[in-house]
Write a structure and sequence with these properties.
This protein is mostly helical. The protein contains 6 helices and no strands.
């Protein structure tokens, strides 16, 4: 199982993929500050796919799984809603990745809450 964009992204250098992710993130934030009206979900998915493809080149797991984990974790943190994240990504990614997406989204959301409460307690 593989997706065409993941397969193509694996042919690009990891540094270039990370640069694409940073540029996409910066351009989205600059657009918001200039009054651009739009959402943050799909630009975040795009940047997360680039980061996941870069990470996949260094890990011995299936690239599609690495991208799914990266995207679901980052979107769950950004939205703060793991169930919404899982539903959205299950519709966008292969259904075989549904368990990975659910676990990744919920784990990242839980870790974010624990981290936030730890920071609040220590301040």
């Amino acid at each position: 199982m593989h997706l065409a964009f993941v397969h193509q992204a694996l042919q690009i250098s990891p540094l270039f993929l990370l640069v694409i992710a940073v540029i996409k993130t910066l351009s989205t934030n600059i657009g918001f500050s200039l009054g651009w009206r739009g959402g943050k979900i799909f630009p975040s998915i795009f940047a997360s796919v680039a980061v996941g493809a870069a990470i996949a080149q260094f890990l011995p797991i299936m690239p599609v799984m690495c991208v799914a984990i990266t995207v679901s974790a980052s979107i769950a943190v950004i939205l703060g809603k793991p169930l919404l994240t899982a539903i959205l990504l299950i519709l966008l990614l292969p259904i075989e990745l549904a368990p990975v997406i659910l676990v990744s989204a919920y784990l990242s959301a839980c870790l974010t809450k624990v981290s936030y409460s730890f920071r609040q307690k220590n301040n």
